[in-house]
Amino acid sequence: MLRIKPDQKQRVTLTVNGKLVSGYAQPRLLLTDFLRHEMGMYGTHVGCEHGVCGACTIIIDDVATRSCLRYAVQCDGLELRTVEGLAEPDGKLNTLQKAFNENGALQCGFCTAGILMSATKFLQDNPKPDRDEIKEMLSGHICRCTGYEQIVRAIFQASGQ
Amino acid sequence: MVAETISPIPSAVRVPIKFYPIALDRVRYVGEPIAVVIAEDRYVAEDALELISVDYEALPATADPEAAMADNATLLHEDVGSNVVHHRTFQYGDPDGAFERADRVVKLDWRYPRYASTPMETYGMVANFEKQPDRYTIWSNFQGPFILHALMTGALGVPGNRLRLITSPHSGGSFGIKQAMFPYMVLLAACSRLLGCPVKWIEDRLEHLTASSTGADRADGVEAAFSKDGELLALKFNNIVNVGAFVRAPEPASVYRMHSASNGCYRVRDIAVENRLVVTNTTPIGLNRGYGGPQFYYALERVMDAGAKALAIDPAEIRRRNFIQPEQFPYKAPAGATYDSGNYETGLKKALDLAAYDALKEAREEARAEGKLFGIGMAAGIEPSGSNMAYVTLAQTPEERAKAGGRSGGLGTATVSVDPSGSVTVKTVSTPAGQGHQTVAAQVVADALGLRPDQIDVITEVDTLTSAWSLASGNYANRFSAVVIGAIANAAEKVATKIKLIAAENLEVAPEDIELVGGNAQVVGVPEKALPVRRLAAQTHWHPAGLPEQMEPGLFETTIMNPEMLDAPDDQDRVASAVTFGYVFDLAAVEIHKDTGKIEVVKYVSVHDVGNVLNEIVVEGQIYGGFAHGIAGALLEEFVYDAGANPQAGTFADYLCITAPEIPDLTIGHFNTPSPHNTLGAKGMGDGSSMLAPTAIANAAADALDTFDVNLPLTLNKNWSAANGRPYERAGAAKAKVGDGPREEGAVEGGLKGEGTVELSASPIEVWELLLDPDTLAAVVPGCEELTQLSDDSFSAEVKIGVAGIKGVYSARIDLRDKIEGESVRLVGKASGGLGFGQGEGVVELEHISENRTRLSYSYSANVGGKVAAVGQRMLGTVTKLLIGQFFRGFDKRLRNVNGNSRRVSIGAILKRLFQGRY
Q1: pLDDT for position B469
Q2: For testing contact with chain B, the best of A36, A38, A108 (most B CBs within 10 A)
Q3: Overall domain count for chain B
Q4: Which of A54, B53, B483, B667 would bridge with B412, disulfide CB 3.0–4.6 Å?
């Protein structure tokens, strides 16, 4: 096992949204802080830093994951998908994002990045969910603005049912 | 040191409370800033935080307003002489006479819980101080500037133009909470001055949950006088507000926001109000969605249900009989509010239809016949929007107000400009936090100028040095659609008028014959006679000489408007507190499951009058969002404090934000009575069901349980107790019976308590000696890193303990009292560290069983506070049990070793060395 001293910076190389990137991280640097402050990717939001609110959810090796509960050094060599990777290369919103936009599924937008990532993975596994399944998935996220209803509608719409 | 550069921040309550943004020599609540650590990065700052050690001398503390009001209560602010820091009584009409005439008087009292909307984005700010001239600049996600800018400049001792507030164009939710960040802004500004560099702070979630702001918890009561046919004759409100440790501005506004509309939707004119503000050892309260509304309607709308029940009138019917009638608008309420428009009965009927009320009542009878607990509750309310800044001065007597000089108004400002390229920009100071201000502003301006919304840029960033702003600027009291949009529409209209004048001259028609459509200024009905709006607008820059005579060049129109009804409070304490008055009627049906205590919301209908709807999706989103906050307050969310005023909800695992599956399905109904107080006929909206859902649900639960004694939040434990006729005890307080080891532990109110017995393999006197031996203690106290005997009866120790993943080092001091050798001793101790503090006491008794057997009994009680209690209270009981178990296992092992080879001291010394890692 790799052993690193507490104050020693470690090179971390990972694939984010299909691009190989690397930076340096002390062992205690959270993945959220690595993404935001080292990589300059501010799309991933930090809401509680104890794994409850879901705002920081990203997809790591095809699993929707709280990035605030990971250290950057743990993710060396892994493949990450973040909200910055959702839109089409020309900047056009993808189906899910468009559905959020059309349904008023975001107000302040702070929780949205995490919800979009969970929903992306969720629809991949369960392409035709019913409303209750969508709500169950959303139980891993806290949104204080919308009361969730318009988010449920957006995800349902994005599933093309 | 920081405090030397800051003066206390005043409030509308004129008492000698010195409110600094950092504690000086006394800490009054857990969460109060005591030190600011500034470092190059946050990780280093957190390290440094743990090095701070504070030696507290503990004073009695309470989170309970009634306890704080007691005669012998410890005073939070000695100069005030009482913990009741504000007390006023009001009378409108003749409430006493009306109560004498009444056929029936109904009385309720209750506790309203403390909860908050906890925006997902916490406070964030950068403060910078520059010299020559001395100027502070603060970038933040504040939702002001509001009147708070003036308080901040006062605290920093600078004129207004030397405190530049720049607020971000977007904010990650607020719901009122981000109003309360201004003391932190002052604190950071002072830090920047002291350090000579910009400083940044992003609040973390623990800080947010313990030290930002919450809605008010209250210990209120209400009395209502009714005639026998259900006419509401008079009301008496007795409001006791737990304001927290300080009266942080704009408090005491929470108890005055609804004041001038104390009659709610009803014609009642005889009203008495008594308001008391109590300071306790809790975080100061402040704005939270519905600000004062949820607490107000909990009084009014529950007593309406109680009156209905007492008089055997249907709760919908008793409301209908008392509603202000459509032809009475504009309606002057007894305490001064002017209701703009409404039709309350229509709203009620719509709600009853949507709920299929008669069928629902039948369903209730059927459910009850099957032994189920099924109830229906409702609540009606007006939604005041666009506040009069002066309503807060009701906290002062008319004489005090006269002396202080007049106060009134709630200015709305907006700028619409067109640059030389013909591009339109709207600038507003409404500091949106997700309410769609940009969307709606673009739409309104586009309509006025005949353009598309995507052609309009809306700038919501506020800069107090360059924006057109005033005392009311900011985001609160639903003021966007009540006031701000009027200013935007007005500024857009000025631009449109100018464009029409230019077009009229160019097209040689009268200006009133010009309309702005499809990007063109065209002659009405003659689309081929048209000029592009953008070109006409650009002409004001490119060709001023060609403009109509006497027209000012350029296109930069700012509107500053004051809704005319927002007058100063009169000498009878009447004030028009708001501009528009929307209406909400909520109806809920619930079933409470006897076996689990689960409360199931079977049906929820909410009908709204928001005046003219400006944007359907935005309105709907606000209604769903407000509903979620109301339901959350009714069912789940509460900031719990223990009896020692330690906050128990420092994480989202303890503060239970409502999630998607917990929100019942909502049926929304609309009807609109356009507001004459608003250019577009719109009313403020957004609070909505956040004000009424707690009451509608409580009324439904009261109906289901056949008692008015219900208290929010309606948790499983509470419901189960009520449904099964058991007294309610807070979760964790239940007494478990176990054999050896601690018999009770956990979140008993008042802290940790426990007792237990162990049998040890030595005689009482051997146990006694070993128990008081510092080497032994050092070896067996779990996590003990160093133990020093200070005197015969006193020890100090450094102990490393982890609770809920938070490992910290604590300095402890333990004194032995009432020693009876070989029999008993009382231990009194306190500990503190970077992560928390505690104090406690325990008694150890030894009993001889046989030659080499001693029964040791112990009992302890302790209070734990600080971070460790806020994030780990669920685990404290278990951890304590674990540590005590470890202690006695270690202790017994030592005893056996001692008996085995009688080399007590040397083994102790070796063990100690081993333990400390020194060989």
Answers
A1: 94
A2: A108
A3: 3
A4: B483
